[in-house]
Structure formats: structure tokens, C-alpha cells
Specification:
single chain; 152 residues; mainly alpha
């Protein structure tokens, strides 16, 4: 069977969780786990555990505080340290992954670019009329309200 970009099944997720739980007191060897899951590499097993299956991961939506913290930290440098940001957000009982932080920022930037593109297309006469601050402070749900607003 080929190894590579293989989709994980719920059964494989459960299997990985069970093996990891059994080996809780000793160092987990993902190479041994990947031998029991021949379609997955040791790297994919490790990443699946670290970013998706580990029970200590907080899968709930980011709080407003977490969002603001991630945005502040990510904008302070050209290449943010996602691992450091995630570690500082994590608590004893729940943690955020670097992937969650990075995806939040990238999705937000994509949304901002999309909204800016639509606004520029709508108001081609003066495309610089709309500020980024206005877009950041209003969600897409407020778009109907924005139509009635006159922006200076």
C-alpha cells in the first residue's frame, strides 16, 4: 500500500488513541505505531496525534482574547513563531496547536482580502476609500448594515 497523503479513518484515529494511551508512561515511538498502520508514516502518525487526536487539544472556537493575542503576536514579526504563540495560549487542561493559530491568521487575512476586493470592485472610482480598520472591526454578518453606512 502506498504511503503519503492518505486520509485518516475514524478507526485509525481510535487505534492511535488506544496505543498512545497504553504507552502513556513511557516514551511513544511513532515508528512502532506506523508499522501497525502500514498506510501511514511515522511522521504522519506523530502529526496526527500532535495536531488532531491528543485529548488535551482545545477544539472549541478561539475566544476573543485568544484571537486578539494571536493577531498581536503574529503581526509583530514577518514570520511569527506559531509554536511559541500556541505555548503561551495553552493552559494545563487544554492547549492550542500551532496549526490552529496559523490557520486562524491565514483565514482572517483571506477574509479581509475578499471583503476588500468586493468593496474595491463596488466602488472602483475611489478604491482607497475604505480602511482596513473598518473591515477588521466588522464581521461579514454586518454586511447588510454596512450597505447603509456612509464611510468617510
Amino acid at each position: 500500500m502506498t504511503r503519503g497523503n492518505v486520509i485518516w479513518t475514524p478507526e485509525e484515529d481510535e487505534f492511535l488513541l488506544q496505543i498512545y494511551t497504553k504507552q502513556h508512561n513511557r516514551k511513544v515511538r511513532f515508528q512502532e505505531i506506523s508499522e501497525k498502520l502500514p498506510q501511514h508514516t511515522s511522521k504522519s502518525c506523530r502529526e496526527r496525534w500532535i495536531f488532531h487526536i491528543d485529548p488535551s487539544i482545545n477544539h472549541k472556537p478561539l475566544t476573543r482574547f485568544e484571537q486578539n493575542y494571536i493577531l498581536a503576536q503574529s503581526s509583530s514579526s514577518a514570520s511569527p513563531n506559531w509554536v511559541g504563540i500556541a505555548k503561551r495560549l495553552s493552559r494545563k487542561d487544554s492547549r492550542r496547536t500551532p496549526l490552529q493559530c496559523k490557520n486562524f491568521v491565514n483565514n482572517r487575512q483571506r477574509r479581509i482580502r475578499s471583503i476588500l476586493g468586493r468593496l474595491r470592485k463596488k466602488y472602483q472610482k475611489d478604491p482607497n476609500r475604505f480602511s482596513l480598520g473598518f473591515i477588521l472591526n466588522h464581521s461579514e454578518e454586518d454586511e447588510e448594515k454596512r450597505k447603509d453606512l456612509k464611510i468617510n
